[in-house]
Design a protein that fits this description.
This protein is mainly α and 139 residues long. Helix 2 crosses helix 6. The chain contains 7 helices and no strands. The chain is 60% helix and 0% strand.
Length: 139
């Protein structure tokens, strides 16, 4: 599956209904406010489970493949490796993502609603839209 636009991505995220993903993204917005791609990767934390029943690693691979054309290689890499804050994939981004994900598990604050993230998703998608391809998936 390849997401063709922000609207399809929003539909997928609405289907996930993950408060933890919202909290993770909100925590990343606080700690790294200029890093929209990292925030979006936090928002995508549960998206792989909608792409078919499988092992967690397969879900992460599918989610990364689905978002790569729309959100770019960095977001795809972070989505794919978000649970690997150690080992050969560990870097500052993954450590930050993992820390926010863990804090999001128990954080007790209002992280807002998914619709609050539409503009951020559109900005990241626009940055990665190829020539002749609009960020919303239209040509």
């Amino acid at each position: 599956m390849e997401l063709r636009g922000v609207e399809e991505l929003m539909e997928m995220l609405y289907a996930c209904r993950s408060e933890r993903a919202l909290r993770t993204a909100a925590l990343l917005r606080r700690s790294r406010p200029a890093d929209k791609e990292l925030q979006v990767a936090g928002l995508m934390r549960d998206s792989g489970r909608l792409l078919g029943p499988s092992e967690e690693a397969e879900q992460a691979d599918r989610a990364a493949a689905a978002v790569r054309p729309l959100l770019g290689d960095r977001v795809a890499r972070l989505v794919r490796h978000h649970g690997m804050a150690r080992g050969p994939y560990a870097d500052d981004d993954l450590l930050s993502l993992r820390a926010a994900d863990e804090e999001g598990r128990t954080a007790g604050f209002d992280a807002g609603v998914l619709e609050d993230w539409r503009t951020v998703l559109e900005l990241v998608a626009a940055r990665h839209a190829g020539p002749g391809r609009a960020a919303d998936g239209a040509s």
